[in-house]
Design goal:
By secondary structure, the chain is an alpha/beta fold. It has five helices and eight strands; from the N terminus they run E-E-E-H-E-H-E-H-E-E-H-E-H. The protein has a single domain, classed as 3-Layer(aba) Sandwich (Rossmann fold), CATH 3.40.50.1820.
Length: 215
C-alpha cells in the first residue's frame, strides 16, 4: 500500500544503517532516496524538511527511503566528517536498486544534500537531484561543489531567502557554475530550516518532479 511505512536496517560500509521506507505504488516509475542534515547538530531522518521532501516524492507513488547516517539514531559506526557518509548514500542507492530496479530521484537537506550530491552525480542509477538548503557557508565546515560543473542530470536547488548557511549571492554563484539543466527556487523569508515554509518546499519539489515525468 502506497505511503505505508516500514522500519528496517540496510547494510552499510560501517555497519547497519537504520532506515524507513515509505511504500510506493505497484506501478511506480521511480524510487526516491532522501538524506538528512548534519548528525552532529541533531540531524536525523526524522527531520521536518526531510519528511516534507519524502512526502512530496511519495505523492507520485515512488517508494521513498530515508536512513540515518553512521552514528545517528540506531545506525552503527561513527561520524566521518562527510567522507564515510558519501559511502552511506551509496549503500542506500544499492539497497533501492536491488529492491526496486527503478531509476532513482535523490533529495537531500543541508549536509545530506552535500553528501548525496557527491554520491549521486556520478551514479547512473540516479536520474534527478534535489538539493534543499545547500550549505554554501557553514561556519568551519567547507563544502565544495565544483563537481556540479560536470553533473548534467536535472538539478533542483531550493533554499530560503534568509538561509544563514547559504547566502543568496553565494548560492546563485554556485548554481551558475553547475551544469544544465538546473533550477533555483528561493523561498522568500525562509531561513535554513524553512521554518513555517515547508508547504512551499513541498510545492516546489512536486512542481519540478511533475514537469520531469512523462505526461
Amino acid at each position: 500500500m502506497a505511503g505505508e511505512i516500514k522500519s528496517l536496517f540496510i547494510p552499510g560500509p560501517a555497519g547497519k544503517l537504520e532506515a524507513l521506507l515509505n511504500a510506493g505504488a505497484p506501478n511506480a516509475t521511480h524510487a526516491a532516496l532522501v538524506c538528512h542534515p548534519h548528525p552532529m547538530f541533531g540531524g536525523t531522518m526524522h527531520n521536518k524538511v526531510v519528511f516534507a521532501a519524502m512526502k512530496a516524492l511519495n505523492r507520485f507513488g515512488f517508494p521513498a527511503l530515508r536512513f540515518n547516517f553512521r552514528g545517528a539514531g540506531l545506525s552503527e559506526g561513527e561520524h566521518d566528517e562527510g567522507r564515510g557518509e558519501i559511502e552511506d548514500v551509496r549503500a542506500g542507492l544499492d539497497w533501492l536498486g536491488a529492491e526496486f530496479h527503478l531509476p532513482i530521484i535523490f533529495a537531500g537537506f543541508s549536509f545530506g544534500a552535500y553528501a548525496g550530491l557527491r554520491a549521486c552525480c556520478p551514479d547512473p542509477r540516479v536520474v534527478a537531484l534535489i538539493s534543499l538548503g545547500t550549505p554554501v557557508q557553514a561556519e568551519d565546515r567547507a563544502y565544495k561543489f565544483d563537481f556540479l560543473a560536470d553533473c548534467r542530470k536535472p538539478k533542483l536547488f531550493v533554499s530560503g531567502g534568509k538561509d544563514q548557511f547559504g547566502p543568496v549571492e553565494q548560492l546563485r554563484l554556485l548554481v551558475e557554475t553547475a551544469a544544465e539543466p538546473k533550477q533555483l527556487v528561493l523561498v522568500e523569508g525562509a531561513d535554513h530550516f524553512f521554518e513555517g515554509k515547508l508547504d512551499q518546499v513541498r510545492g516546489a519539489i512536486e512542481k519540478w518532479v511533475g514537469a520531469l515525468l512523462p505526461a
